[in-house]
Design goal:
465 residues, mainly beta, six-stranded mixed sheet, 44% strand, binds CU-O-CU linkage, binds copper (II) ion
Length: 465
């Protein structure tokens, strides 16, 4: 197995290290340092009769343990790398100090096997976030290096239970039950990304949530898959979307149809169990065959004689973006490449290459005609400036575009604003616009969260200075 340098999601030409120390830490007492150890492990993951599967996991677990912290606190973690390769940890959706963003080659050097790195993560927003490897992500996330990061509101909603549901799909050899180690497959890279053949919820193929009639649950959905878009729907449950990508909706949205979750995206749902005693409710997944069970909720007993009234919105977060559309700097991003695309040449490592040469380099995607990371950012914004980024997906595939360090809002047709998000799922051929306030200084990646695409060129960055 060989890797290109680009697999490391490294900044071409060598990045300077962001030297900034976490700011605003003076007043609060120093929280204790916890450990997070990345290591290999073997887990009985395939059905009985199959061998155990070798995984890479935080503390040897898939998913890693749920990190849970109060809003406004700091998370201090000593990351210890016991993997066979270098790694780093990214706090997806958290408005961290740039030096803690975990992007190897951009915000820190990758942590070598046997070494450690101390993370000190401010948690200004409450909600559902996640952490995952950000060194050779296409391989490391696929091997299991991820977990949920839940930041609790001072006063949470009135629910009976709060459950994290991390969705993933794994590409497993059906004979050996081992993870397919071809992380550079040109087919995955040029098409919809690495899609698995084995779906798990919280690391288990048979995850279920026993429940009671009229119970109210908060479900925190995280899509940790490399490329799969999960389309979820409710059966025997009545629910509301409360938050997307950690940020509360101003008004909870009754969930009537299905909800799309692209890689990296999260949704907080509140659901009431309306199925009867002895029935099975379901968080279902819609695929080509129609709706299939994803998380069954076998109902036994009754929690209350009646349902509760509809939930009030979650308290707003300070990080819900307040972009100034009138003053915003216009930016453009043209996404090209991939199979059935129109890209016939692009800049790679500073040189113009034909599509044939890009194929030889196993690089297939370009932003504004440039493949992968460059020394120059897509834009340099001054702190406090607003930006409006118009994105044209001139490819035949959907992409899940993730901005580090800040949330954005979609500028809808007619000028309204969509919810505050950190990852935008875009269909092939779509043109969409997002706006954000550049209120977090540093170097922030903007990339496709279909990790095979990111490794094959769909990666850029913005600088806030
Ligand atoms: Cu969730 Cu750059 O990643
Ligand atoms: Cu993509």
């Amino acid at each position: 197995m060989t890797y290109t340098r680009r697999d490391a999601l490294a900044l071409a030409g060598g990045a300077t290290l962001a030297a900034a120390l976490p700011r605003g830490l003076a007043a609060a007492p120093e929280p204790a340092m916890e450990r997070l150890v990345a290591r290999t492990a073997s887990t009985q993951f395939a059905p009985e009769g199959y061998p155990a599967t070798e995984i890479w996991g935080y503390d040897g677990l898939i998913p890693g343990r749920t990190l849970r912290q109060p809003q406004g606190s700091r998370l201090r973690l000593r990351f210890e790398n016991e993997l066979p390769g270098a790694s780093s940890v990214h706090w997806h959706g958290i408005r961290v100090d740039n030096a803690m963003d975990g992007v190897a080659g951009v915000t820190q050097p990758a942590v070598a096997p046997g070494d450690s790195f101390d993370y000190d993560v401010r948690l200004p927003d409450a909600g559902t976030f996640w952490y995952h490897a950000h060194t050779r992500s296409v391989e490391q996330v696929a091997r299991g290096l991820y977990g949920a990061l839940v930041v609790d509101e001072a006063e949470g909603p009135d629910v009976d239970r709060d459950e994290v549901l991390i969705l993933d799909d794994w590409l497993i050899d059906p004979e050996t039950a081992q993870i397919d180690a071809d992380f550079a497959s040109p087919h995955d890279r040029t098409h919809a990304g690495r899609r698995g053949n084995f779906i798990t919820v919280n690391g288990a193929a048979d995850f279920a949530l026993p429940a009671k009639r009229h119970e109210r649950l908060r479900l925190r959905l995280v899509n940790a898959a490399n490329a799969r878009i999960f389309e979820v729907a409710l059966a025997g449950l009545a629910g509301w979307t409360m938050a997307l990508d950690g940020m509360p909706l101003e008004t909870p949205e009754a969930m009537t149809g299905s909800l799309l979750l692209g890689p990296g995206q999260r949704a907080d749902l509140i659901v009431d169990v309306i199925a009867g005693d002895g029935e099975t409710a379901d968080l279902a997944m819609v695929d080509r065959q129609g709706a299939v069970s994803l998380v069954p909720l076998p109902v036994s007993g009754t929690a209350a004689s009646e349902r509760r009234p509809a939930p009030a919105p979650l308290p707003p977060n300070p990080g819900a973006t307040r972009a100034d559309l009138g003053q915003a700097r216009p930016l453009e991003l043209n996404m090209g490449g991939g199979a059935m695309g129109r890209l016939d040449a692009a800049i790679l490592d500073g040189h113009r290459r034909s599509f044939r040469e890009l194929v030889d380099a196993n690089q297939f995607w370009a932003f504004n005609g440039v493949v992968g990371m460059t020394d120059d950012p897509l834009a340099t914004l001054s702190l406090g400036e607003s930006a409006r980024l118009s994105i044209y997906n001139d490819t035949s595939f959907p992409h899940a575009m993730h901005l580090h360090g800040m949330h954005f809002r979609e500028v809808l047709e007619g000028g309204g604003l969509g919810p505050s998000r950190d990852t935008l799922l875009m269909g092939g051929g779509e043109r969409r616009e997002i706006a954000f306030l550049a209120d977090n200084p540093g170097k922030w990646l903007f990339h496709c969260h279909m990790l095979s695409h990111a490794a094959a060129g769909m990666m850029t960055w913005v600088e806030v200075a």
